[in-house]
Design the sequence.
C-alpha cells in the first residue's frame, strides 16, 4: 500500500477511549480555561475564530459570496459576505455565529464517541486551512497560524494517547466556552454598549426582538453542552 493510503488509513483508524480520569481532567482543565480571568481573554480568540468561521460557512451554504474574515486583538471579528441584504440567506448567515462553537464541539464529541480522536484533530486542521484562505488582516493571520501550529504540533509529535487527551480537551473547551460569549453579548446590550450585535441585526432582519435571538443563541449553546457532555461521559 502506498504512503497516501497509509495516511488515509491512519486518519480513519480508531483509538480506545481514554480512562475516565483523563476525560474528567480534560473537562476540568477546559473549565478552568473558560472561567479563569487571565486565560479567558487569550483562549476567547479561538471561540471568535470558530464564530466567524460559522458565519462564513452559513454564507457559503446559502449561496452568498464570502468576501473575507477579520479577527481583531480585542477578540472581536467580522465575516463579510456579499449577497441580498434581506431574506433567509442573510438571516442564516448572521444567526450561525454564536451557535457555531457549540455545534463544532457537539460534532467533535460525536467523533470522539466513535473513537476518531486523531481524525478529529486532522479534521480541525483542514477547517483551519479553509479559514486561513479567507483571512484579510494580520492579526487574524497570526491567530489562525498560531492555532494551527498548536494543533499541528500535537498531531505530529505527541503520542496517540496524548493526542486523544488533547482532542477531549479541545472538545470540552468548545462546549464549555460557547455559552459565555452569549452571556457577554447580553451584558453588553443591557449596558447599551452595542446595538449592532448579531442579535440586533437579526431583530432588524426578522422583526423578532433581539432578546429572543439571544435566548435562542443561549439555548443552542447550552443544548450542545448538555448533549455533548452526555456523549463524552457515557
Sequence:
Amino acid at each position: 500500500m502506498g504512503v497516501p493510503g497509509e495516511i488515509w488509513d491512519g486518519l480513519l483508524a480508531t483509538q480506545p477511549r481514554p480512562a475516565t480520569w483523563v476525560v474528567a481532567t480534560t473537562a476540568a482543565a477546559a473549565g478552568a480555561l473558560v472561567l479563569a480571568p487571565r486565560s479567558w481573554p487569550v483562549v476567547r480568540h479561538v471561540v471568535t475564530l470558530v464564530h466567524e468561521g460559522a458565519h462564513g460557512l452559513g454564507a457559503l451554504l446559502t449561496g452568498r459570496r464570502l468576501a473575507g474574515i477579520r479577527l481583531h486583538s480585542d477578540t472581536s471579528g467580522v465575516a463579510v459576505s456579499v449577497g441580498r441584504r434581506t431574506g433567509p440567506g442573510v438571516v442564516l448567515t448572521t444567526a450561525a455565529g454564536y451557535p457555531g462553537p457549540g455545534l463544532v464541539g457537539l460534532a467533535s464529541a460525536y467523533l470522539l464517541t466513535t473513537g476518531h480522536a486523531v481524525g478529529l484533530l486532522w479534521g480541525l486542521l483542514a477547517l483551519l486551512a479553509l479559514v486561513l484562505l479567507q483571512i484579510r488582516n494580520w492579526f487574524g493571520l497570526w491567530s489562525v497560524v498560531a492555532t494551527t501550529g498548536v494543533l499541528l504540533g500535537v498531531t505530529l509529535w505527541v503520542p496517540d494517547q496524548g493526542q486523544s487527551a488533547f482532542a477531549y480537551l479541545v472538545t470540552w473547551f468548545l462546549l464549555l466556552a460557547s455559552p459565555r460569549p452569549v452571556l457577554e453579548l447580553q451584558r453588553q446590550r443591557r449596558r447599551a454598549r452595542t446595538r449592532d450585535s448579531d442579535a440586533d441585526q437579526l431583530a432588524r432582519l426578522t422583526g423578532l426582538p433581539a432578546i429572543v435571538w439571544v435566548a435562542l443563541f443561549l439555548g443552542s449553546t447550552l443544548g450542545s453542552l448538555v448533549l455533548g457532555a452526555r456523549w463524552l461521559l457515557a
